[in-house]
Amino acid sequence: MNYPAAIALARALDYVTDIGRQNIVSREKELLLYATNRLLAMEEWKIYGTSEMKISTISFHIKDIHQYDTGITLDKLGIAVRTGTHCAQPVMDHYGIEGTVRASFCFYNTKEEIDSLAEGIEKVKSMLPKLFI
Fold it and tell me: pTM of the predicted model, to two decimals?
């Protein structure tokens, strides 16, 4: 029997129960709305997936910049994102998308972190095209 894992799972369930699942859902929706509004105000990029019932992730692509270059640059700025096809290659192929950058938000994230993401995207847009001139 894996007692350490069982104890860790019990503590994790207590943690979520103490916060309250509905509180977690509400906070993540709040962060998603803030991030969507903050990022949609920016130019030269596209968000993929705008359903009202989506989870707190935003997949995007900056015009003329490969998603891996965006992801590496954001990483160097201390901003964690994922890049690629996100285990959804058939969907990407269907829509003709090579890949995206994905930012995920959890209840413990802050609006300041979302602001940092937006600032990081602006830095990527200003830096990378200059690298290829």
Answer: 0.86
Token pair 């992801």: residue: 71
Parallel, antiparallel or unpaired: strands 45-48 and 82-84: unpaired
Give the pLDDT confidence of 31-84 residue by residue, as tens digits: 999 999 999 888 888 899 888 889 999 999 998 899 999 999 999 999 999 999
Tokens for 118, please give them: 């937006």
**Does residue 106 have an active-site annotation?**
no
- As a whole number of angstroms, the distance between CA 54 and CA 26 comes to 13
Whole-angstrom distance, CA of residue 114 vs CA of residue 65 = 21
Residues 1, 41, 53, 87: which is the catalytic one? 87
Helices marked H in 1-133: 3-19, 21-40, 67-76, 89-95, 111-131
Q: State both tokens at 60.
A: 């995007």
C-alpha–C-alpha distance, residues 19 and 99, integer Å = 35
